[in-house]
UniProtKB/TrEMBL annotation:
Membrane topology: Multi-pass membrane protein
Keyword tags: Endoplasmic reticulum, Kinase, Membrane, Signal, Transferase, Transmembrane, Transmembrane helix
Membrane spanning residue stretches: 58-76, 88-112, 118-137, 149-167, 207-227, 239-258, 278-299, 320-335, 341-361, 382-402, 422-442, 454-474, 486-513
Gene Ontology biological-process annotations: dolichyl monophosphate biosynthetic process
Leading EC class: transferase
Protein name per Swiss-Prot or TrEMBL: dolichol kinase
One GO CC term, this protein: endoplasmic reticulum membrane
EC code(s) of this entry: 2.7.1.108
Amino acid sequence: AVLAESLLVFSAVLSVHAAVWDRFSWCAVALALQAFYAQFKWDRLLQLGGAVFQFRGAANSGLLPASMVIPLLGVVMKERCRAAGSVYFERFGIVVASTGMLLALFLSVLAVGITKPVPTNTCILTGVAGSIIIYTMKHSLTVSEVIEVLEVLLIFVYLSMILLYLLPRCFTPGEALLVLGGVSFVLNQLIKRSLNVIEGRGDPIDFFLLVAVVGVVLLGLFFTVLFTFMDSGTWISSMFFHMMTAVLGLGVIMPWLYRLIQRNPLFWLLQFLFQTQTRLYLLVYWTFLAASACGVVFYQNAKRSSESKKHQASTITRKYFHFIVVATYVPGLIYDRQLLYVAAVLCLAVFIFLEYVRYFRIKPFGQTLRHLLSLFLDERDSGPLILTHIYLLLGMSLPVWLFPRSCAPKGTLPGAGALVPYSGVLAVGVGDTIASVFGSTLGEIKWPGTKKTFEGTMTAIFAQIIAVALILIFDSSVNLNSSYAWILASVSLVSLLEAYTTQIDNLLLPLYLQIMLMA
């Protein structure tokens, strides 16, 4: 299964390399070869219990698929923005690619350094790949860009040491690279833009995303440190939690956002949300879907009898939420992507805040949330945090957030790139859902080394092709320009990756589909 997963990742890397064919795509190939060998060192460390931190069990390290996501995103973004003539975002893509490669190299060097005896061949390969990448960065990056890359690496190192210690068994090494690498990059971007504020420059919704992500992470770190010295389950602690949340929100996050967008954040948000009648209709519709999702949670818990306290929701029951999310995102993508962007940021902040309430047992809702959500746990929620619903939201939202709007003058990219914002809907909302439902009910032929079935994967590919046809019918902005073969190959590759990966597919699959479509 690990070899098949690696082969699929190599296929994605070589596809991007063939489409781009520059020094950075060559670096991506070198990084993939090096990460393939380093992945087995991480796997061995996890099996022997020799890893520095406690990582999520029942999964391999996932170093290779995770190592390639950020570099490949940077490479394809650079190429798209170069073609559109956007020099600033072309340089930004180069910084993203360089940062991703350096973070992946750091994790590989860490694995090699703590493996005993020292793996000579992997050391040599890591040294060669590192030399190629550093040589390319030396001749491609300016001094300020090199400093920016090193700043992200430094933030990543400290953030990893803190969060992996505080949150054991929540991540695999690959998932930690993706999540903490992304948070480190966002934090560095927010600091950089806060120090260089120019009135009227930058889109307020981009600043809203940066401040929201950093704000909820800092909030979590603050309360984690605080509640190591006091019991979080008492009413006094709960009142202090709510009071300090208000203080940090109104006293730190709001002024920070005001400095960036040069206007009152609350007034801007209200004006933005109710700007048009279409937005009002979408908000009412999304409120109805949110209430429906809550209804599913309460109904499933009501069915749980006192004799079956260990009963867990079935795979099909959990996929109800995938259908609800698809029904949420598709109208937003068709009618108002900016509103969807902001609504997804707000939803992410609410989800993470509610997870803090559940984790710290904050009164009056902490214990209730623990009871309600325990029904929907699966083997991936082995740590103290429940992250699968947050990963689902991220998987659907990242293609919307990472869409290079400045490199798409007409609001959409040409060819297969027009489907980039739909990557989450296709890969997770349609593909993963259909594969799980049909695979668990009708599947008989299993892929070698996995529990996933051939029937589930083939049905997922077919369903995603139908979904693309429906998008063409209902979204007039999508024009594929006869790039159907590339779309079929991309969807097939990501569906096969879903069958073989043991990582969080809600997070990984949309990113790989986005990379393939942008290439």
